[in-house]
Every structure is written in structure tokens, then in C-alpha cells.
Write a structure and sequence with these properties.
This protein has helices spanning 15-26, 43-52, 67-81, 104-114, 116-126, 141-144, 152-172, 200-210, 219-230; strands at residues 6-9, 30-35, 57-61, 86-89, 133-138, 177-184, 241-244. It is α/β, with parallel strands linked by helices. The termini are far apart.
């Protein structure tokens, strides 16, 4: 019988998800690396780094807008290693749309990934966790704390993630399943480097100058926080949100 704990992580071909797979490998946790088929990043590079860290992982393509694909993705952990312990809903998209140009289709499509997709992954996960376990969703400082102009759908989805996690923390506590969320601040990922829909390289550099720690965050810093929340060190933490932002949200810009 496999005694190593097992996790599924969506959006794990790059950024926070990729770094989480590596962090789990360093802790002896098996990982199903979830990747979106159209993602340009090569998940085999993540597998190589996981193996170099002494871990075991498999890649599984999944579109979180499709509940059947989500079920197959989560089941992969059980088929591969005979168990599921941790579920991390990290997949997300960012799209710039001023409200006047925000169509119903654009709203629904982003919500289906960034909010409903989280619910689908969690729903499938709790059906397969047989003992105690942990769920973590990735929210954002945009929606989790601040508003973000021209990103109303993204901001609403990320705010909704927090409510979802609070409700599920109470609902699943009798089963010994903990549910938490992380709220990343400005993190240097491929997504935030997108100059059309997000900050872009120059925007990240400017943001870093305004953050109390003097820089934007690194994906591995968020990943280690997620790893902590699913670990036994966080055994009495549920229904919480941890902000990982270098002090941005506690900084008063008016003095």
C-alpha cells in the first residue's frame, strides 16, 4: 500500500502550480500535475524538476470548465497511487475587459475557470478523499483585498473563491477535511508578465518599488505557503485566508 501522501494541482505547468509540485516532491508528496492543453509551457520540465527533487509525479491534461475532465483528472491520483490527500485549485485566467465591453460570454467563460472551476475540482476531490485531507484554492489580491479596474469578472471570481472556501471549511470539518485559501499579491509569473491582460514586465518592476519588501513575489514563495496549509503543521487551520504579498496590503500609501 502506498504510504506517501498524494496531491492534485491544477494549473501546474508553470508559475505557482509548478513550484508547488516541486515543493511537494521535496516533502515526499506525490503529485498529479494538471495542465491545460493549450498552455504553451512544457509540463515535462516540471516532471524533470520533480524527479530531481526525489519526487514522483504524472502529468494529466484538464480543462476545469469540463466536469468530466475534472473527475478524470482527480481520479488519476487514486488510479496511480491508490489515494488522494490534498487538492489544490490553482488554475486561473486573467482577461482585461472594461465593463462596457464585458459580454455575458466573456463573464461566464472566466467564471467557469476562476470560480466554478475551483468548485468542480473541490467537489471531485472530496468524493475521493477517504480520510482526513486538505483543500486549498488560490485567490488573488485583486478581489481578495482590492478592486482592479477593467477586471470586474476576475475580481468577482477571486472574491467568490474566499466565500466558497469559508463555506466548505465548515461543511467538511466533520470529515476532518480542512479548506483554506491563499491570496497572492503581485507575483512574478507568466500570467502577470502578460502586458495585455495584466501588469507586464514594466508594470511588475514599478509595482515592486511600491511594495514594503521592495520587490514582487516569487512563485515558490506562494507555493511554500500552500504546502504549509496542507501539511500537518497546519492541522488546526481551516476557513482562513493567508495573504502572501510582501506587506503590500498593510502599507498605507498616504502619510
Amino acid at each position: 500500500m502506498n504510504t506517501r501522501r498524494t496531491a492534485v494541482v491544477t494549473g501546474a505547468a508553470s508559475g505557482i502550480g509548478a513550484q508547488l509540485a516541486i515543493a511537494y516532491a521535496q516533502s515526499g508528496v506525490n503529485v498529479v500535475v494538471g495542465t491545460y492543453p493549450a498552455d504553451p509551457h512544457d509540463p515535462e520540465e516540471v516532471l524533470d524538476q520533480v524527479r530531481q527533487a526525489g519526487g514522483d509525479a504524472v502529468v494529466h491534461e484538464v480543462d476545469v470548465r469540463d466536469p468530466n475532465q475534472v473527475d478524470r483528472f482527480v481520479q488519476r491520483a487514486v488510479d496511480q497511487w491508490g489515494r488522494l490527500d490534498f487538492v489544490v485549485a490553482n488554475a486561473g485566467v486573467v482577461r482585461l475587459h472594461p465593463l462596457a465591453d464585458l459580454t455575458d460570454d466573456a463573464w461566464d467563460d472566466l467564471m467557469s475557470v476562476d470560480l466554478t472551476g475551483v468548485m468542480r475540482v473541490f467537489r471531485s476531490g472530496v468524493m475521493r478523499i477517504s480520510g482526513h485531507g486538505a483543500l486549498v484554492a488560490v485567490s488573488s489580491i485583486s478581489g481578495g483585498v482590492y478592486g482592479w479596474p477593467n477586471h470586474a469578472h476576475y475580481t468577482a471570481a477571486k472574491a467568490g473563491v474566499l466565500g466558497l472556501c469559508r463555506a466548505l471549511a465548515v461543511e467538511l470539518a466533520p470529515r476532518g477535511i480542512r479548506v483554506n485559501s491563499v491570496i497572492p499579491g503581485v507575483i512574478d509569473t507568466a500570467q502577470t508578465q502578460d502586458s495585455v491582460n495584466s501588469f507586464g514586465r514594466s508594470g511588475l518592476d514599478q509595482a515592486g518599488a511600491r511594495i514594503p519588501l521592495g520587490r514582487v513575489g516569487r512563485p515558490e514563495e506562494v507555493a511554500r505557503t500552500i504546502r504549509f496549509l496542507t501539511s500537518d503543521d497546519a492541522s488546526y487551520i481551516t476557513g482562513q485566508q493567508i495573504v502572501v504579498d510582501g506587506g503590500l496590503t498593510v502599507f498605507m500609501p498616504i502619510s
